[in-house]
What does this fold into?
Amino acid sequence: MQCKIFDAMSDQTYLLKLTGEVRLTSCAPLEKVVLRKIHDLHDKDMVVDLSEAESIDSTALGLVASMAFNEAGEQHKKPVIICPKDDIYRILVSMQLDKVFDIVKNKSSQLMSMRELPATPESDHVICQRSLDAHRTLIKISTTNQIRFEQVVEQLEKDLHPVLPKSH
It folds into this structure.
């Protein structure tokens, strides 16, 4: 199932709902939410609902993880992830997102009226940069993630900034 991203806001809470197969190529709206969270939503309680996600890749996990930090890279109040599915829950814990989120196994958060965030086409360069930033965020969480994603980050950096041979 194609990824769809929804959000809603109340006085106290910002809710982000990710559905379907949440992958690198569907993360443009998610990145916009992350930037908005850092700049405008820092005083709101954050809830990420994965109850209807079928799968989630490491780039999307990195973007979700970055919602737990402010502009200075510090964490204050832990956001909440709703994740009733055991397979996705195991992924979250293996990536050690439980260090920066409160993960609850509730069913869903359909308490507010939600709007779908539109997907937008993007260049390969933008997608690669997003993936690099997301994996750098995952590396910040733990040494396990650092070991796990160090080569991914190195390769993405090479892809984004290739070293050109010197001309004679």
